[in-house]
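Module 6 notes. Inverse folding takes a fixed backbone as the condition and produces residue identities as the prediction. Think of it as a translation problem where the source language is geometry and the target language is the twenty amino acids. Below is one complete input and output pair. Work through it position by position during the lab.
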């Protein structure tokens, strides 16, 4: 779903970016067409391309190459240096050097949110144990998304949902009770589906010290114990939530009863073999879902629908849920619930963050929370710097599995991508300090027309692409686009630095290059801030 699906008009304030300038040029010639502009790979001819010829040729049953050549002949504008057509029918645009030099001086601020309220709910790990690395990846993604949304004009809020009223917390309490028996000299008989990890012994020790005896007291203490732990670990990871909502609060607010009443009034439920079903097939699901079991227990779906009713009634224009891979089967049910409550399904966007595998010494580490053989975020942060962990979690699309290479993460060399990007920023700051020692300072009006080398022009293009990449990252809910662009920008800077002296005998050229690399540094810093990664000036 594009954010425009919920009524957002995409625009750039202060000035148009390159992609929008090219789109406008094509729109003037082909007003009825949907114009898509994308980037030409760096090893190909041109800077941007359009696939417009394919669309027209498909509709008219014409030869795509003939259409592409016809379009190219009709386009002429001072910002375009060259237009080339490439098989099967791509139209590539090479930008005018002077145009690029003029654009570098402009400050471009994206405002695509226009103040709309967005609630991003993420992590929401069950309070049954420490935060694991899959939830940690969701934390990095969610926190970056909130920062990106705020940067682009949205009122974005972060929420953590504590599932403290489900079957898993009963199993937690029973597992701890058995550990308590074990610590008192007895034999623990942990339920098969319970939690077998050694980490529960620490909780059991505290419960013994507190003198807690009743099942409910043990359960409440254990939930509070892990919620407190989650809050601390999230804070250590640089992630702060605006709201912590408990499932038990949703029950107390009567939202569950309210949601159930709505479903019944709309004739969207039926009973079968003592259980109550929600007709999710009416909303595209492959089967109807049980919402109340035959023994009177609510399944996850009913309180989840009630929780989303609670969120929507808090006047958020858009909801974003970031879930783990084990929640994929719940998507249609909850979207059906949104529609059943009277809201359009596009009010909720669900992002599945795929699993993380820890790799060390070339081997994958087996992880299981119930068995207690998993890597927690707190364990990972004791070995790897927070900046590295966050950057690594954001190097791939959320939809892709991620192998976290411990050995690579611990390296402080160009092989480590976060070090590589941070070092580019630190090197630029070092060059600027060196220039200052030579009494050559940064100028706001440096002569950008002196920046003509291919490596200089590449850096200008990278800088000008950043707000476009940010816009795309927000629209697609994909922070990795920022990460990838920063790595590419750092690579292009290092390439430039290897070939050209910044501080040279030509003062005007020196000032122009200082201006350019400072823009690079500002771009790197802006991107790293959105990723929640520090940007050192010395390394």
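Target side of the pair, the amino acids:
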């Amino acid at each position: 779903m594009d954010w425009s699906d919920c009524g957002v008009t995409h625009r750039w304030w202060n000035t148009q970016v390159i992609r929008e300038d090219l789109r406008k040029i094509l729109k003037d010639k082909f007003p009825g067409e949907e114009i898509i502009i994308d980037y030409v790979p760096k090893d190909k001819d041109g800077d941007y391309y359009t696939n417009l010829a394919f669309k027209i040729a498909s509709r008219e049953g014409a030869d795509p190459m003939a259409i592409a050549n016809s379009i190219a002949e009709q386009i002429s504008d001072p910002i375009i240096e060259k237009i080339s057509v490439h098989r099967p029918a791509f139209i590539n645009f090479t930008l005018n050097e002077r145009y690029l030099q003029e654009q570098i001086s402009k400050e471009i601020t994206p405002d695509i949110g226009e103040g709309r309220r967005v609630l991003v709910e993420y992590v929401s790990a069950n309070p049954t144990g420490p935060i694991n690395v899959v939830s940690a990846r969701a934390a990095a993604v969610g926190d970056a998304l909130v920062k990106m949304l705020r940067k682009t004009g949205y009122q974005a809020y972060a929420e953590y949902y504590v599932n403290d009223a489900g079957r898993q917390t009963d199993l937690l309490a029973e597992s701890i009770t058995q550990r308590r028996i074990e610590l008192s000299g007895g034999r623990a008989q942990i339920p098969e589906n319970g939690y077998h990890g050694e980490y529960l012994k620490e909780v059991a020790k505290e419960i013994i010290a507190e003198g807690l005896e009743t099942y409910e007291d043990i359960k409440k203490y254990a939930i509070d114990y892990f919620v407190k732990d989650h809050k601390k670990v999230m804070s250590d990871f640089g992630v702060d939530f605006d709201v912590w909502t408990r499932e038990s609060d949703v029950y107390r607010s009567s939202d569950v009863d309210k949601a159930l009443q709505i479903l019944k009034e709309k004739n969207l439920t039926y009973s079968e073999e003592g259980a109550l079903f929600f007709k999710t097939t009416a909303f595209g699901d492959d089967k109807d879902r049980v919402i109340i079991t035959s023994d009177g227990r609510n399944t996850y779906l009913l309180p989840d629908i009630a929780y989303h009713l609670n969120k929507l009634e808090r006047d958020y224009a858009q909801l974003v849920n970031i879930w783990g891979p084990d929640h994929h089967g719940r998507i249609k049910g909850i979207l059906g619930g949104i529609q059943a409550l009277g809201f359009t399904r596009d009010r909720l966007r669900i992002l599945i963050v795929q699993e993380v595998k820890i790799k060390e010494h070339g081997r994958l580490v087996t992880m299981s929370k119930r068995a207690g053989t998993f890597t927690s975020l707190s364990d990972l942060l004791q070995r790897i710097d927070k900046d590295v962990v966050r950057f690594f979690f954001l190097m791939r699309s959320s939809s892709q599995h991620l192998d976290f290479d411990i050995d690579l993460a611990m390296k402080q060399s160009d092989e480590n991508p976060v070090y590589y990007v941070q070092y580019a920023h630190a090197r630029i700051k070092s060059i600027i300090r060196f220039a200052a020692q030579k009494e050559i300072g940064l100028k706001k009006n440096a002569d950008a027309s002196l920046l003509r080398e291919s490596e200089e022009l590449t850096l200008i293009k990278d800088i000008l692409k950043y707000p476009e990449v940010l816009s795309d990252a927000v629209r697609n809910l994909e922070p990795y686009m920022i990460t990838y662009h920063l790595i590419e920008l750092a690579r292009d800077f290092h390439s430039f630095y290897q070939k050209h002296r910044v501080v040279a005998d030509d003062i005007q050229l020196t000032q122009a290059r200082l201006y350019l690399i400072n823009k690079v540094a500002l771009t790197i810093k802006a991107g790293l801030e959105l990723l929640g990664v520090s940007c050192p000036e010395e390394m």
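Reference fact for the lab report: The chain has three domains: 18-107, 122-247+354-410, 417-531.
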